[in-house]
What we know:
The structure is a homodimer of 334-residue chains.
Chain A: H1 2-28, E1 33-41, H2 50-72, H3 77-89, E2 110-116, E3 122-128, H4 134-144, E4 149-151, H5 152-161, H6 169-172, H7 175-190, E5 201-206, E6 212-218, E7 228-229, E8 239-241, E9 246-252, H8 254-259, H9 262-273, H10 277-292, E10 296-302, E11 307-308, E12 315-322, E13 327-332
Parallel strand pairs in A: 3-4
Antiparallel strand pairs in A: 1-5, 1-12, 2-3, 2-6, 5-6, 8-9, 9-10, 10-11, 12-13
Helix pairs in contact in A: 2-3, 3-4, 9-10
Amino acid sequence: MRVVQFRSLRKIIxxxxxxxxxxxxxxxEPGWGMAIHGGAGTISQENLTPEKExxxxxxxxxxxxxxxNILKEGGSSMxxxxxxxxxxxxxPLFNAGKxxxxxxxxxxxxxxxxxxxxSRNSGAVAGVRLIKNPIxxxxxxxxxxPHVMMAGEGAEVFAAQNNVATxxxxxxxxxxxxxxxxKVLRHERLEPRMDHKFGTVGAVALDQKGNLAAGTSxxxxxxxxxxxxxxxxxxxxxxxxxxxxxxxxxxxxGEYFIRSVVAYDISALMEYKxxxxxxxxxxxxxxxxxKFGGSGGVIAIDKHGNVAMPFNTAGMYRGSVRKDGEIVxxxxxx
Amino acid sequence: MRVVQFRSLRKIIxxxxxxxxxxxxxxxEPGWGMAIHGGAGTISQENLTPEKExxxxxxxxxxxxxxxNILKEGGSSMxxxxxxxxxxxxxPLFNAGKxxxxxxxxxxxxxxxxxxxxSRNSGAVAGVRLIKNPIxxxxxxxxxxPHVMMAGEGAEVFAAQNNVATxxxxxxxxxxxxxxxxKVLRHERLEPRMDHKFGTVGAVALDQKGNLAAGTSxxxxxxxxxxxxxxxxxxxxxxxxxxxxxxxxxxxxGEYFIRSVVAYDISALMEYKxxxxxxxxxxxxxxxxxKFGGSGGVIAIDKHGNVAMPFNTAGMYRGSVRKDGEIVxxxxxx
Lengths: 334, 334
């Protein structure tokens, strides 16, 4: 009887130890994956037709699949982020690349940035006009120059020297964005107002090696003037990645995101206050930023592969994919 | 005997209470004051003639006096910061305004930013060419536009609409900066290299109402190309102010300051880790940034009027003034 009891105890200890080992391995192995957004704002089921909604869902799924395939093959989070953003830049649905918002003068002016969480290297461009994929140029600024940020014509000269694909002005023209400008211009005669539909795109990823990356690309505000730069090309405001904490891409009313240093603030709350990704990103978007009057949201992924996508607007085009390949895409605030 | 003892005790309690009240009043009253910098880098006694050193000391003292007089009269920290920076922009000694560095094409391109710690409103301009005082334009972006940041020609159009003083290209030309460009261009033929003398200017202040402000202005890197933007016009990187923590202005190798979000990081360490201004600013400049490979420094003032001016280079033109009017100006790392 006593021997049986001893054997049972040994078995229990063995099983328990095995479970502990499995749990440890599970926790140690990064649950790689990624998240993307296609902008936050006054998106509601009433003003989105079923066809339009389907189109958005399909394009978000396509972007996530492109990034996922790279991560699955052991590719880098930087490449996954870039691939997902290029697909959204190439789609007229989003305010980035093709489909970028028009500035006051009827010109498309685009911003983008990308950051590598391992080296904290980063690249950004602001106010570029004829660059087909601004995120590619931001990556090149990081990889092929000693600088982080380039703007305007200078950035386009750098692009030309590095054989970056350009497109004619007509390529970026979409009726939707053109009409948005005309509408704002009509209203401007009465009183200046903000266009509360944002369509910035972004991606964050954690690869199998445990490296984080974040990127953001935008056409900026409809009717923007005076070479206005928003948060998207600003490291720390619209984009941030650091392997010790998280990767973040923001979308929303850029001025508030700059003044709140939103993307880095989430990382700082994790590093300095020990908050989880969910706690930090929710605190920044739904408490601090909201109280400050700023509307928008972020997508974020931490070094364990946890994903958070808080926003304080009616909707945010967003989606995520885990290492098991499960893709989740959403639009509204449920 | 008992009555005497009781009286003595009452006296002791009275004196003790009075001391407590005085101590409390002392602690509650903000010890207003300000600090400025004129750039950090390879500044050593060997390569600075006594005449040059005297000129720098005089100009720093003049800038501090201008800011001090505003604070003493009950003026705002924003006005004090702007006044001190204008004096340094107007001097050919510093790499800002008159005396700005030349870019690769022999053109002066300037950046500036300013932030109000009370409202966290901020304004910034990047890549402006003919604006006499870029810090004034940054302030106008904050006060007269819904935006935080404007760049290039667009910013100059905004300046013209707001009657901001311009100057001809020759005004910004100094032999010193022109020769610096020629020297770098000669070296560039051999191998590209950084010019490790920075001359960015900045100011931080705490006014009698307890409001903090920070501002930074620069001509950027000698021989910069492709519309490169450094940390000076970036809120969170080169400039940050928040009444609950501190005001910071940075100078140094901008790319590292952007990737480290230096100015906001000091504030975050105070807010989230409970560090003092000295601890936070020293940790960021002499530990984190140094380990990361970034050279430069910051000036910072907290909500109690404590001043910190850490730098990890050979020297930093710097100075501070307290509410008693005592001005301290320094250059080298003693």
